[in-house]
């Protein structure tokens, strides 16, 4: 699979250029607003200057790393603050490949398209395990594909694009497969605050040098533009990941890190609960209208995406354009996420008009 | 040469832990303060929120790229906003190597230690050209080393650590050597606002697809912690550099980019002139005291570093520790910058106590 991220931009541009009103369900940009402490933290930082405007430690502000370590129950030495979740995945996958214990990266189909893109850039080889219609993977399939050539298994739970949340048994077995093949499980958990199933299990539950957990504040604090994420890894991986981070970026952005630190310390748990409640309502309204449209779909267990399939209407780029022009709804072509989802479309529930969008789809397919 | 950046941190830690007052001349962190428009821009951004807190374009905020393009007289399509100058150099060197036209990276000795570090991480081979005592390179030496194996020539003007500013003839010949060997000249010009010689010539003067110019606002706006830099490259390089940036970081930090954009638009040229005047004074005072200490040194033509050599006192790490403990002055061991400078020490003029430091050195060596 080629790196297809520019597809997002093509679809967004087509929707923006359309002659009619279009409900944008393309991007993964939260629309529900950040907690006030993000702005407060940025204002407080803007009032400093001088030394505080200079390089933070390359691995991240000490207090931020300590805050993360305390929340995740790990030693601070295991925490690397990164340029968002994307930066964390890059460092983790780069580390897995540079160990020299294989050049294959196992991932799922459908897949978040950055993973195959990073694999190719890093000189690795892509291997895919096909998920079922609900987005779940059978660990036995992963074990079959894994071998001494496996450098890394990269998964995303809660999942983009399928909404699947992998159960405890799956996570335990994925760690075991990584251990048995001298590989690293990279568990990308950026949607961990968006679990509606109660089934979410972090790979952190399994203390192993064969797993690296990546995460980000982009979605949980609705600040995708700040670029603050983190990785948690055994020191034997954390140290070379820090070096790679230093050699690619020197350090992460200090204004962003200061704002995130302040927001973590001053945001009420209600903020996260309210966001989940909002998304639960959107999911219910959107899927109800999809029923009316005669669509097949997966109800997300987590994250904020719904994959849907309409009879006789495959999820091609042409059909995406058709829906923008004729129904006024913009989604993502399933083909952007891998071969198994070419019939499907992905809709991101990042608009208060999700129900209106579903009604438009119901009208169009009536 | 191994990647020796952690040496900085070791020296800074030793100085911080010392039992006595120490003048810190180790880091490259400006101490003269940012223009007020940086804070103002950050405050203004903090008041936005919502959509403005979400992903900027991966290649950088459009208005920032336009501002840079207008200032540098290039088309906006050639501008990639990066995670500081370090990010720009990483993208440029990565691009040079991925072209497949050689795996050698030619650099100077002494060298900014990130260049050899990045070369190794990217799978390239290091080749060094030795600079003369003033830090200048003879282009004939570069031409002799360059071959069909050369992917890239990376230079830094004004130079860290030597303070040399390469004259026009050198820059013209470096571009020609890159062209003649199907290689790319990466000209790192992050100290371009700190030229005291009037001789600074940007590689941008030479319109060639064989040169990439990198730069940053870290030093010019005294915001090393914000991580905003840029590269200017022919589109055939800018496009793959944008892809690499997307795959490693998704995008740069938007709060930082917004603050830089505001600062560029609202900072009087006097700010830069005043900084240069301040540094000229520091250089004069510091070098005068070095004369009194019987040291050999280079008067910087640009940047804000002075390399000095004391009779019978090589620039080893042990001697650096000795000067911290006995003289109360912290510099960097010359060995951190390459084999040609093992006798030397580097002092960064980023403290109002530069003259005091030189007086202490004069006392110590008296």
TrEMBL record, chains A, B:
GO biological process: amino acid metabolic process
Keyword annotations from UniProtKB, A to Z: Aminotransferase, Pyridoxal phosphate, Transferase
Residues covered by the Aminotransferase class I/classII large domain: 21-352
PROSITE patterns according to UniProt: AA_TRANSFER_CLASS_1
Record keyword Transferase present: yes
GO molecular function: pyridoxal phosphate binding; transaminase activity
Alphabetical list of SUPFAM superfamilies matching this protein: PLP-dependent transferases
Domain of life, source organism: Archaea
Enzyme Commission number(s): 2.6.1.-
Cofactor(s) annotated in UniProt: pyridoxal 5'-phosphate
Family: Belongs to the class-I pyridoxal-phosphate-dependent aminotransferase family.
PANTHER family per UniProt: AMINOTRANSFERASE, ASPARTATE AMINOTRANSFERASE
Subunit details: Homodimer.
Name of the molecule in the record: Aminotransferase
Gene source species: Halobacterium jilantaiense
